[in-house]
Amino acid sequence: MKEINVAIIGCGGIASVHAERLMKIEGVRLKAFMDVDEKRAKSFSEKFGGQHYSNIDPLIKNEHIDALFVATPPFARGEEVKAIEKGIAVFFEKPVALTLSKAEEILNSIKRYSVINSVGYMWRYLDISSIAQEEVRKTVLLQWFLANT
Fold it and tell me: What is the rounded CA–CA span in Å between residue 35 and residue 102?
């Protein structure tokens, strides 16, 4: 089995959850951690192994990374585009961005470099999501009907 080398950028609370779960997957190796607060990144590397960085440029240059988990706050997004441009698969913690223009920049990069990508909107896979969508649809139709009769 080929080992998958993973880096995590943004070493806060949700990154710990992802790192713990990734450690349990056979064939996954946590290779690097990046955070603007280098102490946080270092703490992750001490706990989970791998190198630590405070900037994505040396991470991409020095490490062979197959996948990047983006757990930075949404207002701090953008650095991951450098990884996308290198063909590295990317997982985004939700939301992808705070502005439409930033989200479009990221999407355009994903399309241009054809990278595997996903966003952690985990509720979309629950049965309750389709039930909620149907209820919203009924409410909107009812409101339209009442407004137009």
Answer: 20
Count of domains for the chain: 1
Residue 47 belongs to what domain range?
A: 4-147
* Cα dihedral value 87, 90, 96, 101, nearest 10: 0
Question: CATH number of the domain that 137 lies in?
Answer: 3.40.50.720
Collect all residues with Cβ–Cβ distance below 8 Å to 21 and sequence separation of at least 6.
none
pLDDT in tens, 54-106: 999 999 999 999 999 999 988 888 889 999 999 999 999 888 888 999 999 99
pTM over 0.85: no
